[in-house]
Amino acid sequence: MNIVESFRPRIASWLNRPGRRALVALAIVAFALMATPQATRAQAYPSQPITLIVPWPPGGGSDIAMRLVADAASKRMGVPVVVVNRPGAGGTIGLKEMASSKPDGYTIGMVATGAVFAQYNNANANALADFEPIAFFGEDAFVLSVNTKTSIKTVADYIAQAKANPGKLRNGNDQPGGSSHVAASMLERRLGLKLNKVPYAGYAPTVQALLSGEIDSVTVPPPDIAQHHKSGAVRAIGIAGTERSFMVPDVPTFREQGVDFVAGSWRYIAGPKGIPADRLAVLETRFLEVLRDKEFIEKARSAGFVVQPAGRTDTAKRLVAEDDAMYPVFLEAGLVRARQR
């Protein structure tokens, strides 16, 4: 007889005494009640801070927009949503960090228009398919603005000077693959111009270069240039949108000036592929709650942003349409160097 068998009669005798079985049952229930909250906490999402990677420097439009979103989302998520700036290589460095992070819903990021171009032009860039759309933020039409020391006052003046002096006008924009670099490239192609495209690591340093006279023009969204235009420090001459911007209402569109040119920068929130469906659903729901909130929309508008919220499905459809529209332009211009469709 082994030791377990020798104790079996004693255990049975103990359990048969009055009240002992009830005591054991209570002990099991108590253990279960203590264990359940711990299990629930282990499964809850989110239960720790969420990192929101912005692949541009502090101070620019994308940084400001995402900090507004992060602040509002922190209150709805119940955990801090922390913006981390990872600038460089036209947004490629930050996006690669986000796309290669653990797909647990705790690292997400902001993707902008330039990512469409980067996937075809930069071998180190991620394809759009590497990102999981969460929510669409909105779009800004680019504003062509010039240094006040130039004699340029209209889009026609700009075109005339650029054509008379090919490669002389210094336009500040993102590094190759960035949104404003794409806009400048499309402007060249559409109008038959040759610019000296000078790269900077984000909109903030680009605008500073215009203010100092280091460059002659910039192609950046309204929030980044509006205050300088209003103060007279720079001269905004054309909006590349279908209508004027409320940020600079005195500036006519390209179309109003007889030039059919539309180009903008959009932003959306995404994560790496592989985030569990239930966590994606939480992220989408919470961010859409933020982007549809009237108070947030007014706050964003005050900062110069037009919020156009859309969920994961609609964002994915839009990205396909944007990709389809832009790829032929890149291909014809000889800008498809890293991968083809």
Description of the molecule:
The chain has 341 residues and is of the alpha/beta class. Helices cover 47% and strands 18% of the residues. Helix 7 links the parallel strand 6 (170-174) and strand 7. Helix 3 packs across helix 10. Mean pLDDT is 88; it is low at 22-33 and 35-42.
Query: How many strand elements?
Result: 10
Q: What general form does the structure show?
A: globular
Q: Which blocks of ≥5 consecutive residues have pLDDT under 50?
A: 22-33, 35-42
Instruction: Report the average pLDDT across residues.
Output: 88
Global Rg: 28 Å
Percent strand equals 15-25%
Question: Counting H and I runs of at least 4 residues, what is the number of helices?
Answer: 12
Tell me the distance between the termini.
Answer: 75 Å
- What summary fits the major beta sheet? 5 strands, mixed
- Give me the secondary-structure category: alpha/beta
User: What's the arrangement of strands in the largest beta sheet?
Assistant: 2-1-3-10-4
Helix proportion range: 40-55%
Order of helices and strands: HHEHEHEHEEHEHEHEHEEHHH
Overview features:
single chain; 341 residues; alpha/beta; 5-stranded mixed beta sheet; 12 helices; globular
Q: What's a concise summary of this model?
A:
The chain is 47% helix and 18% strand. The chain is α/β, with parallel strands linked by helices. The strands form two sheets. Strands 2-1-3-10-4 form a five-stranded mixed beta sheet, sandwiched between helices.
